[in-house]
Structure formats: structure tokens, C-alpha cells
Write a structure and sequence with these properties.
With 152 residues, the protein is mainly beta. Helices cover 8% and strands 43% of the residues. Strands 1, 2, 3, 4, 5, 6 and 7 form a seven-stranded antiparallel sheet that branches. The longest helix has 12 residues.
């Protein structure tokens, strides 16, 4: 078999419940059902004369953080957000994402200066569903990696 690492120890495979999102005060946002941080890399394309191949060079990147929150359990964000709308300003929040391995190792990342960006649910109602609110943030500082997961 060429891929000797393919059949990994399934005890090391993470499930979605092995993570958490914390606010700036270190309080777990227990009503957050899911969260995702993504980086979008933008490159500038160029093609020198006489070269049939296009090339790319790094130009910029952006980081977004999205999460889904259970509405009935926690109103702190929406209250601060609605007050900001009334005042014509936007709040800025800091978050810390955590994923925990079954072996006790952790991956932690800090997301600072997060401002609301894109579509944010004010009310989202579906028959027979739990009331949830989707949040979307633009992360204005580079994510800071605190710890890495290990497979040992």
C-alpha cells in the first residue's frame, strides 16, 4: 500500500462537539452551535510577454468568522448590535476558537477586532426549528495561533 498513513487511528478523529468559541472575557459562548473561520487569499495575476502561462503573486488576504447562535439563550450580542445600529456605529469584538483532540491536545486561535460584516440574522424563523441567529464578522487583525493539535 502506497499510503501508509491512510488508515489512521479512528480514536484520533475529531467530532464537531470537540470545539468551543469564547468571548474576549474568556467566557465560553455555550449557545454557539457552530463556528467557522476562513482566510481568503487574493493574488495578482501577471503574464510576461512571450510566456503563455499566467502567474500569480500574493497581494492580500482577509479573514472571516461566522457562527450560528441559539437565540433564546443569549441576547448579549444582539443587544449590543442593535444599540450600535441606533447610534450609527459598529461594535468590535474579540474571540478565541478552540478545538480539542481526544488525546487532550488543543488548537487555539485568537480573532481580534472582529466587526459585523455581511448578512446577520435579526430574526430567522422556520417551522419546527430551534430559533437561531447567524453572525458574520470580518477579522481586522491577523489570527493568532496559540496552540496546535497533535496526533500523539
Amino acid at each position: 500500500m502506497l499510503n501508509q498513513r491512510g488508515p489512521i487511528d479512528t480514536r484520533k478523529v475529531l467530532t464537531g462537539k470537540d470545539g468551543a468559541l469564547y468571548n474576549d472575557a474568556g467566557v465560553m459562548l455555550a449557545t454557539v452551535e457552530s463556528f467557522q473561520a476562513q482566510v481568503n487569499v487574493t493574488n495578482a495575476k501577471y503574464q510576461p510577454l512571450g510566456d503563455a502561462q499566467e502567474h500569480e503573486a500574493f497581494q492580500a488576504y482577509s479573514v472571516t468568522l461566522t457562527f450560528s447562535q441559539i437565540v433564546i439563550e443569549d441576547d448579549a450580542f444582539i443587544v449590543e448590535f442593535m444599540n450600535a445600529l441606533k447610534e450609527g456605529t459598529m461594535p468590535s469584538w474579540n474571540f478565541q476558537g478552540l478545538m480539542k483532540g481526544r488525546n487532550g491536545s488543543e488548537q487555539r486561535m485568537n480573532y481580534r477586532s472582529c466587526v459585523p460584516s455581511g448578512t446577520i440574522d435579526l430574526q430567522n424563523v422556520t417551522v419546527g426549528d430551534i430559533l437561531k441567529r447567524a453572525w458574520s464578522f470580518f477579522v481586522n487583525e491577523p489570527p493568532a495561533l496559540q496552540k496546535l493539535l497533535t496526533a500523539d
